[in-house]
Structure formats: C-alpha cells, structure tokens
Design brief:
By secondary structure, the chain is of the alpha/beta class. It has 2 domains: 104 residues, 3-Layer(aba) Sandwich (Rossmann fold), CATH 3.40.50; 73 residues, no CATH class. It is 32% helix and 28% strand.
Length: 202
Amino acid sequence: MKVVLENISKAFGAKLLFEHINAELDTGRCLVVTGNNGSGKSTLLKIVAGLMKPSSGSIRFYSGNQANQQVLQGTVGMVSPEMAMYPALTGLENVLFWTKLRGLAITEAKASELCCYVGLSGNERCRVEHYSTGMKQRLKLAVLLALNPPVWLLDEPSANLDEHGKELIARLIDRALTAQAAVLLATNEAREVGYGSARIAL
C-alpha cells in the first residue's frame, strides 16, 4: 500500500494552513509531519484519513497497480486526541466493538492479549469511564493493533503517556514498519521525529 499526496492545500476561509504539500507514504516507511501548534498537522492526517477534504490537490491510494482517490475500507487506522472510546464499555469491549464495526472477527482472548500488550493488564475489564487519560490513550493503541490496517495515522501518539508509554510507541512503530505497514506520524517529539525516513515540515 502506498499513499501519494499531490499538491495538497487547506484553508479555512481566509486562513491558509498549508499549501502545495507533495509527499509519498510508502510501505514499511514512516513519514513524519512536524510543525507548531495550529500549523495543520492534525488537519493533514484527517485529510489522508478521508475525514476532511483538501481545499485543493488530491490523494491517491495505490494497492498493487491500482490507484484510488478514496480511502479503501479497512485501509487506514488512526489514533488521535479526538478519537473517543465508549466510556460505558470496558477496554476489552471497546476493542471487540471497533473490530466488529470494521468487519473483523477477533476472539476475546486476542483482544485481552492486545490490551495487556499496551499496558492495560488488570484493567481491560474495567469501564473506560474509570480510565485515566493515559490509559485511554493506550486503549486507542490496542484498538489500532486489533484493526491491523496497512496504513497507520498517528497524531501525537505519546500525548499523555509516561516514559514507559513513549517506549511503547517506539515498539509499536517498529512493529508496524516490520509488518510493512505505512506510518504517517504527526509529532514534535524529538525522539519520534527520528523514526521518520522522510518529513513534512508545516
């Protein structure tokens, strides 16, 4: 899977966030997006995810020799500050819910394993309304692992995470790239910027 950004620009009214963004997001590679707060990092990821349209330009998704200008179902998984889990459900139930919504079948045992992998061991059967902000962030990562998409969109993934959580992000990105996923990472963390093989500076 390859994603090509062609001359992407985005404006809200008279305010221009960015323009003429050209980049390629390749299988097994990490493309990093950096910039000051308000520069449009999250907006660019939303455009790639198909949640927002660019003011100009286009995005092409290549699967083999076929190109598509719309996000193919199951292609993209996203972790962002705006992504919400269902508070009345447990962490485990959230993982099972989001995978079922995507048309994927995983066992409760597998969902539990993923919760434990991201550091929620002993809390996977607790309601999310009782989770800390960092625990909710870890749960988002468990959902992403369960979905296992070929394109990962990570918007400041280490936000609200402690040092162990930041080490988890490093392992997850390495895991994704080893599995030949394409990773688009929006961050200003110096450590995370180093994960990229290419960079977009907004």
